[in-house]
Design brief:
This protein is an alpha+beta fold and about 130 residues long. The protein is built from two helices and six strands; from the N terminus they run βββαβαββ.
Length: about 130
């Protein structure tokens, strides 16, 4: 699948793993996938990374990758993510981890600060949409 993207630019003064827009030729799509919000539960359903946004972000993206693989996709198929955070202070750490999972052309992204999550120690939750 060929993705065309419009780069975000440098407004955040750091490298980010998202773009302003993504276009794909719908004739190339065989399947759309929506991935529910993921928090930092490992494969044994243990919550990991208490107090550590990097560890939690890594586990969340690992979970998303696992769901995609089960459905026949890869992280390259993601076209949109919504990121929910408990506080905005960890943005650089979040993007450092995201840059290990996403490559250009990056997906679009929305970031929202929230009061809390279903697990009291969660600092981040991400959902995604992918086109396979």
């Amino acid at each position: 699948m060929k993705k065309e993207s419009i780069p975000f630019g440098g407004a955040m003064k750091m490298k980010v793993a998202f773009c302003n827009g993504v276009g794909i030729d719908v004739s190339q799509i065989q399947r759309l996938v929506w991935i529910s919000g993921q928090i930092a539960f490992d494969e044994k359903e243990n919550f990991i990374g208490k107090g550590d946004i990097r560890t939690q972000t890594n586990q969340v993206l690992k979970n998303i990758k696992g769901v995609l693989e089960q459905l026949g996709g890869t992280m390259d198929n993601i076209v949109q993510v919504t990121v929910f955070v408990k506080e905005m202070g960890g943005l650089k750490d979040i993007h450092d981890v995201r840059l290990k999972y996403f490559k250009e052309p990056y997906p679009t992204s929305t970031l929202v600060e929230v009061k809390g999550f279903v697990h009291p120690d969660a600092l981040i939750e991400i959902n995604a949409m992918a086109a396979l």
